[in-house]
Each structure stands twice: as structure tokens, then as C-alpha cells.
Amino acid sequence: MKNGIRILDKGIEKKEIVNMPCCPTASGAKR
Amino acid sequence: MLSTYYISFPDSSDPASIILFSTKNASKVAMTKNLLSDIEQGMLGDEEREQLSDLGLLVDDAAEEKKEMLSYLDGLNSIDHIFASKVVLNLDCNLACRYCFEGQRKGKYYMSRETADSFVEFVRAYAVPRKQEIRLTFYGGEPLLSLGLTEYISERVKSLAGQNGITYSGHIVTNGTLLTPAVAERLTAAGVKEASVTLDGPGDIHDAFRPFKGGKGSFDIIIKNLNEVCKIMDVEVGGNFMKENYHQFPFLLDCLADEGLTPDKLLLVRFDPVTQESDDMAPPGFHGGCGCFNESWLYDAGVYLREEIMKRGYKVHKFMPMTCLMDMADRSVINFDGEIYKCPGLIGRKKFSVGNLRDGVENYRESHNLDNWKNEGCLDCAYLPLCFGGCRYMKLVRDGNMNGVDCKKPFFDATLEAFVKQDIKYGLVSG
Predict the structure, then answer these.
(1) pLDDT band for position B282 (50/70/90)?
(2) B80 shares contact with chain A (CB less than 8 Å)
(3) Which residues of A touch B82 (CB under 8 A)?
(4) For the range B342-347, what are the long-range contacts, defined as Cβ-Cβ under 8 Å and sequence gap of 24 or more?
(5) Among all residues of chain A, which has the CA nearest to that of B22?
(6) So what's the ipTM on this one?
């Protein structure tokens, strides 16, 4: 832990959100 | 100051620290409680300030951050290089799933060759000039009852993309009963290299919910197909659970492994609740399903099943913001008749058609209540980036309209910490 901070995950950029499939219904679950 | 859009919870590995999770970008940080106190008192050093700002956890001005959130989805659309369509090739099926949300909309309705040609022209007009990637998802009914048309469309769009330097990918959502190795070879040759197949728990439960029209179970044939097909194309397994049966779903995971469908053979496993459908649309006699995410059994089921999947080594999606088709301008559902919708759940509800292949998409901002989350309550909510007004389709089914939001706050209050802990525990992190 440096300066009281330990990074566990740097997170994602907006382009990665865009790149993900949409919600379960849209991505394939036939419910 | 801290961003509005984060949650914090105790760090079980260190009583002197806490964990912060940004709902805007899924960053995760452990920090000492002393440091948190420094932030709250405005006594943070420059280095720490820069680090936490880069992670999206600190902002200069909370009011400004909320103002920026108002244009957040516009920002996503402005960088969206993808044109994605779900193509409903037919509304026919060889199974008689008890809960299918397409229920009474089903029938011998098939997309014609003429409509398929119109779709290819639609892609040429709307995707080719502006996009770097085209993604098609072939959908039904059961799309493999239209195998020839699947190949026809995929080959043409793949060729169109190739001629214009655009990436193309094809995906199919199938019940898996017709997905033999020979069919998988034809699909991949046409550019459809990924399949989503549904298994609703272990054999006895699956067969009760997803029988063939004649009543015979479909589980064994799907497993047999998957064992061969996973060597030819990427396969994702999904399952639809209910309150009464979700505890049985881990047996499916054990069964998959026993049958040779080990984690390395599958792209992803995901279980989702069966959703409620209105009586005029649902299959006759089916009134179950989940009408709202804020049901306490669902909190337990979601966390429990994700843990069962992850601990066996199967892959899941990292917990992060996810878009809705309605919020993304260049994502749509094309019904078999050429009508365009913004959610698979809405197909056939003419009132919610947003256009057609001939005339294109009209403005649906008002009809679909896209701005329902632009109010103080939602802008002040830490979960806004994960929700943006919730599921308008569920709201419609539940309340008969899309007015107002489908608030998921109780669901996230009960589950988000557990989901984030799972991602940390199983190393689903970036960077």
C-alpha cells in the first residue's frame, strides 16, 4: 500500500463499455 | 472531493482499510481509513489526489460531475464505432418453452428473402459510411429453422464489411437442438463464429421447462451437440432460473464438467432470471417470472449463482456499467417483417416500433422515455452509471407503461458489494 492507497483495479475506459454486449435479454437470454 | 458515483465497504483483509468501487468505470481501490478521513477534510496530497482522480474516484466539483453525467450516454454514442443488429429471422420454434417471452407472438412467421435484401441495404446505408465494426446476432424464434437465410445475410454483410475495411462478426442465439457439427461448420464458413445456447439447470429441470413441441426433453441432444460444436465455434451457455429452481443450477455446472464441457471449452456462462411477460404476450398458462429486480430472493440467487459459476472456473462478465439497446443509437432489433425495435422484448408491439428497413429509424426519445433518469434523485444516486433508469421493458410489462424509472437501488444495495468482492476474489480486474 503506497500513500495509503492500494489499486486493485484500474477500471475501464468508455470504449470498453461500448464494446460490451448489452443487457441479458438483448445478448441472448430468451426468457 | 469524492465522486458521487462510488460505493465503499470494509476490506476484509485489513481492518484498517476500506475498499472503494467506482460505478462509473469499475475501478477498485483499497485505502486506509485515515486517508479517507484526509479526503473528507480536504487534506489530500497532490500525488494521492492525482491518482484517485485518474481512477474516477475524486472530482473537483460534484455539481459539475452531475452535469457531465447528463451527457454521459451521448458521449458513449459519440465514440461508438459499432453497428449492431439482432436479426429476428423467424418467430417459429421446435421447442415449447414454458416461459418464452415471445409466447403468443410466435407462429409460422419467417423473414422473406426480400426483407433480408432490404436489411443488407440498410447495413450498407447506415453502417458502412460511419462504422468500423458490424456485429450481427441471429435471433428467433429459433434462427436455425432459417439456416439458409442466416448464411445468406451473414455472407453478404461479411462481404460488404470486407470490401470496406470494416470488421464483421456474426453470433447466433439458438436453443442448440439443431446446432450439429455440420451446421456449425456452415455457420462459421458464413462468418457466424459464436453461439449462445440455453440450458435451464440440470436435465430434469431443463426438460420440464424447455421440451420439444411433442413433449420430449431436449437436454441430452443439446449436450451432445455442444460437445462437438465447441471444437468448431465459440459457445456461451446461458440459463434462465426461477425462484423455485435456482438452487439446482450448480448441478448443471457439475454436469457440464462431467460431460467434458469444462471451463476452457466455453466462452462464458451466465444465469439470468426468467422475466415476467404480460398475459396477452406470455405463453398460455404461464404467469411466473420476475417482474422486478427488487425481489429479495433474487438478491440471493444472483450472488449465489455467480459464485457457483466462478468457483468452478467458468468465465463470467466482470461487473461494470452495461448499456441498454435503447440508449445506443446504432443498436437495434430487426423483426422478421422489417420493423425495427429497440429491445427484443418489444418486438410485435407495434406501438414501440421505431421504424423500418425502408424508412430507417425515427426519433424515439419521447416514446421510449429515454430521459427518465434525468432528475435529481437519479443524478444523486451512486448506482446511476449501472442503471440509467433501469429496464424500460420490465417497467412496461409490470406497470403497462414506460413512464418513470425502473429503480434498481434496492437490488444494488443488497448485491453490489458482493459482486465486487467476487471480482476481486477471482481476479476479474483491469490493469
Answers:
(1) confident
(2) yes
(3) 18-19
(4) B342/B368, B343/A25, B343/A26, B343/B392, B343/B393, B344/A25, B344/A26, B344/B86, B344/B88, B344/B101, B344/B139, B345/A25, B345/B101, B345/B275, B345/B277, B345/B393, B345/B396, B345/B397, B346/B393, B346/B396, B347/B88, B347/B102, B347/B105
(5) A11
(6) 0.90
